[in-house]
Amino acid sequence: MGAAIEFRDLCFANAQGRLLLDTISLSVEEGTTAAILGRSGSGKTTLLRTVNRMVLPTGGEILLHGKNVSAFDLIKLRRNMGYVIQETGLFPHCTVERNVGLVLEAEGRSRQDRMRRSHELLEVVGLEPASFAKRFPHQLSGGQRQRVGLARALAADPEFLLMDEPLGALDPLTRAEMQDMLRGLLSRLKKTVLLVTHDLDEALYLAQRIILLSEGKLLACLSPKEFVASREPLIEAYVSAFHRGWNNTAPEIRLAESGV
Amino acid sequence: MSADFLARHGSEIARLTLEHLWLTGAAMLLATAIAVPAGVWLARSPRWAKPVIGLANVLQTIPSLAMFGFLLPLPWLGERAARIAIFALCAYALLPILRNTYAGIRGIDRSIIEVACALGLTDAQRFFKVELPLAAPFILAGLRTATVTCIGIATIAAAVGAGGLGELIFRGVASVDNRLVLAGAIPAALLALAADAALGLLERWFKVPAS
Q: To the nearest whole angstrom, how far is the Cα of B42 from the nearest Cα of chain A?
């Protein structure tokens, strides 16, 4: 399998001239998931949004199967990329069924076709169509909204999925359930996925490639095993920051369990 | 108001009510045709919002009788009283529709617009399938305010000979006949109440669930 997404010397400077992405070069294999990690403001979302041309780079290029993204028709490019964000962005005036089928409606597909696909996708993301299809977004829980957002992103059967902290606003248990569902789904559907997350555990659980950004620079693009084993100080600091809680509480838990 | 009075003036009241409806209806259509697209454009180019809404605000502050007076000497417009009335009423209706359209579109959650773009909706699809339905309750609220205001102001149009229910009011004031004043004022008030109720129903129909 070749590179489905390739960033070559990608740069992006904002209107004030501040460099938010600094000569990023990396590639993502077809049918795999790459998680983008980094502090807030490190350029994760900006990098993600260059792929569907929501952000236009000021230097370098992005290739999809070797073809520059700017050479694609913008609408076709975006319809071939599912997009999921933390806030879900569900259309509040549309039922769940219509939310999922709106891209198909935009493509001019028949109502029957849209309904069939919406119901099929609701089942895929673990929502019973009979009880959820006619609901409005405000009648759903956070986890259910994210499932609908995911179903909507998959409606046009895109080759790529761009996910910007999709589980960031969920409680830990719902988040774990969603991660399980996502993991199964991604391995089954074989989409090429870019997943922005703040959660290293989530990245290690879902992705085959871990990309670490810092102040717009690429620090690492490694497999999960290489990432956690890395002795690179900045990567080590990132990994150890995720285990501080465990290191602090583990002795207390042990003491409590031993009755001391 | 006696049965005798109604028998004598009934057909005239009906004719003037229709005339009143025609003046305000035409003005509202014209104002909607101008203010809704302008509001959408302002929402996309917010740097123009302040001066354009400011201008509509200034129009709103001109006393209605003075507005009709200003328009009288203008070529083409001043040739027919109905044109003056429709133009002036349209000017008064612009601000609420313009401001509400602008606020309605600008008030849509940015994440919704972002997703609509990212999912590959064209500009027209994004507008008609997402922005317009979400802004519709605001736009209708603006239309409602503008319609009720215009029905009231349209009574002044009789001062320049444009007809409408104001004609009865002016005649009643001139002849110190309260029955004539009421014959103009009551249907005008009922028209305003009916328009308010009808547009209110429409506004509720378009209300976004749980908003």
A: 22
